[in-house]
Amino acid sequence: xxxxxxxxxxxxxxxxxxxxxxxxxxxxxxxxxxxxxxxxxxxxxxxxxxxxxxxxxxxxxxxxxxxxxxxxxxxxxxxxxxxxxxxxxxxxxxxxxxxxxxxxxxxxxxxxxxxxxxxxxxxxxxxxxxxxxxxxxxxxxxxxxxxxxxxxxxxxxxxxxxxxxxxx
Length: 168
Known about the structure:
Layout: H1 3-12, H2 23-50, H3 59-82, H4 92-106, H5 109-114, H6 124-149
Helix pairs in contact: 1-2, 2-3, 4-6
């Protein structure tokens, strides 16, 4: 799939969270989102430089990011489906962070963070659990990145036929 084809496909499937997406479809659209954000950001910097408002509004890049947010999540779900995983695995880092913060809150770690010695958070068994949880949180984005780079699962899976084997 080419750069242009992936952009068209992802925008046509704006709210389509079912089915499968090839690696090229996902990564070309990812590149489009990065480049679009950079181009609109640079354009805003140029406009703000002309109008001499160094921290001026970010309407262009904000609108672009808002417009591509849902298709980015949708193509991520379809990409996870292509590797045989649920699309919810895309949210694994966020779930790990929420779990860590919830554990700290329930275990009374908030007081340790507010105190003069926040390193008290890492004392005893509580500290060991927090340390391991921080390692999981730190590694979770790399695990998701690994899943997104895996080849397509051959043949049909529970999410549909392999996009490489389907010919229009």
